Amino acid sequence: MSERNDLPGIPAPPPAGETALKPGTFEDSCVVVTGGGTGLGKAIALEFARLGADVVVASRKEEHLDAGRRAIEEIGGRALAVACDIREADSVASLFDAAADSFGPPAVLVNNAAANFPVPAEDMSPNAWRTVVDITLTGTFLCAREFGRRHLAAGTPGSIVNVGATYAWTGGPGFAHSAAAKAGVVNLTQSLAVEWGPYGIQVNCLVPGLMPHEDMTGDIRSNLDRTDDKDVCQPALRVGQRQELGWAATFLASPYGRFITGHTLVVDGANWQRRSMTNPPVVPIREQMGLGPYGE
Predict the structure, then answer these.
(1) 155-204 pLDDT, tens per residue?
(2) Left (φ > 0), alpha (ψ -120 to 50) or beta: where does 249 sit?
């Protein structure tokens, strides 16, 4: 419970399994979710499945593929798990071929897959930079390009939902690689929305706040472990529930969100906009990570 018992905060969401859109909204639609086997990607995949979509879960890891497929089948959905390295154009093309062979051409693409880990910029190796940027930004582009090319050739509409991060606007100490890549994802969203809008393809971006799940990076997990209650750190006085991100994704890609494109929707209870009258002392990122002076 929050220590601020005198304030109500943002009400809790409906329970997982509830849907805001009409049943069958995505019936006969194929939805591809990269990184859809765990965490927030799985939560998004499940919400599309609840609304009737045939869901293709893409991941590099077999255990993630199995977990995503099982979760969808357990709620009565149809799922296909496809191994894919989104950094490779040929692998991405094979993903879309497999999706089309099983369920028909994908109508929705959710670019959720990303890489991230904390490291001070001065300690970051070129390979660490390339890995995060290649998966997070290049992978998003390659998947969007494959999706766009197929719809442009067929003359059919479609919807892309990219997944960003709030430090795309603010920067992220300890996450220079990821913050730069996510800024690219937000910009790519805007560019593609304008380019492909005339052809009926909408492109939006979804930014999650703190939504605890099993696939959190080590830094987030350790931060949560250091306290019994993070609610008082959020303006909403609660953290998010993963289904809240899934509901936002399904709305953006639904017929009811068609005129929304080029937009980045932040689902974080206003946490990233929080400001204090008096700023706390600055703690260098090396100190936050328990690292000594550089070079020692």
Answers:
(1) 999 999 999 999 999 999 999 999 999 999 999 999 999 999 999 999 99
(2) alpha
Q: Considering only 67-71, 89-93, 186-190, 212-216, which range has the smallest mean pLDDT?
A: 212-216
Count of domains for the chain: 1
Amino acid making up residue 176: A
Does residue 293 fall inside a structural domain? no
Q: How many CA atoms lie within 13 A of 203 on its CB side?
A: 28
Does 164 reside within a domain? yes
Determine whether 167 is an active site residue.
yes
Domain assignment present for residue 51? The answer is yes
Catalytic residue among 167, 199, 256, 294: 167
CATH of the domain at 233: 3.40.50.720
Encoded tokens for 157? 């509409």
Q: Count of H helices and E strands in the chain?
A: 10, 7
